[in-house]
Write a structure and sequence with these properties.
The chain is an alpha+beta fold. 41% of the residues lie in helices and 22% in strands. It contains eight helices and eleven strands. It has helices at 25-34, 89-94, 115-124, 126-152, 155-169, 187-194, 198-210, 226-233; strands at 36-40, 45-47, 55-61, 64-69, 75-81, 86-87, 101-104, 108-114, 182-184, 214-217, 220-223. Strands 1-8-3-6 form a four-stranded antiparallel beta sheet. Strands 2-7-4-5 form a four-stranded antiparallel beta sheet. Strand 10 (214-217) and strand 11 form a beta hairpin. Helix 1 (25-34) packs antiparallel against helix 3, helix 5 crosses helix 8 (226-233) and helix 6 crosses helix 7. The longest helix is centred in the middle third of the chain and has 27 residues, at 126-152.
Length: 235
């Protein structure tokens, strides 16, 4: 649960950040020696839908959006990845092309592990192999929840849910209960997460602001009443 508001954040969070935590020393040493640090500017692409993976990506710092583009060129953001999360391993394991694209939402530092090193790691570490299998099952459930949210909820409900998920993503590492959390995201990206037009998003944000649930500072959104948003999200 997210704090005490009763929001089941784990239902919408991949949790891949737990895969590299608390590992045996030999596994930690192998990972540290295999990761190649790479810097991405805001808007830089990590990988493109339809391309073949040459390794996996571990987000050291920053945020990355995973998205698909439809035949009309419209973008749908599937998931926002946070520091500590892994990207690209499902496609690498299945030996298939990437099913979506990934782009940095802000200045992002990534550790890239080449395919051979990653496969060697799986051969060496039963701990990581088991964690990956468990996390793949969880990611499938998260995507199911996302699909249900898009197909069965109103735009207002989807916006409330998206803001709660993003609120958790944008927490500072030293976050304390009742600290203000700033969601720093463009209106276009937020609209592509919610699955609506920018004009509709702006109108709904104005309504939430008038109802004292959020406040804005430029493109930043601060959640004032997460419990009320949870009611609107209708989980």
């Amino acid at each position: 649960m997210s704090e005490s508001i009763g929001f089941p954040i784990d239902n919408f969070h991949f949790k891949s950040n737990s895969i590299f935590e608390g590992l045996p020393k030999e596994d930690e040493a192998f990972i540290k020696s295999s990761l190649v640090k790479q810097e991405y500017k805001k808007g830089a692409m990590l990988f493109l839908e339809g391309s073949y993976p040459s390794g996996i990506f571990y987000i050291i710092e920053g945020k990355v959006k995973k998205f698909k583009v439809d035949k009309d060129g419209r973008e749908q953001i599937i998931y926002v990845c946070n520091s500590g999360e892994l990207l690209g391993y499902p496609s690498l394991l299945s030996e298939e092309t990437f099913s979506d694209s990934a782009t940095a939402l802000e200045k992002t530092t990534v550790g890239f592990m080449p395919k051979k090193a990653f496969l060697d790691l799986l051969d060496k570490s039963t701990v990581i192999s088991k964690r990956l299998i468990k996390n793949l099952s969880h990611e499938f459930a998260v995507l199911e929840n996302s699909i249900l949210s898009i197909s069965h909820k109103t735009v207002r409900e989807r916006l409330a849910l998206s803001l709660l998920i993003l609120r958790d993503k944008y927490k500072a590492k030293d976050y304390k209960t009742n600290d203000n959390i700033e969601i720093n995201l463009s209106r276009e990206d937020l609209a592509n997460i919610v699955g609506t037009a920018v004009e509709t998003l702006v109108r709904l944000l104005r309504e939430l602001k008038d109802e004292k649930m959020i406040m804005t500072d430029g493109r930043k959104i601060i959640i004032l009443d997460p419990k009320k948003l949870l009611e609107i999200a209708n989980l």
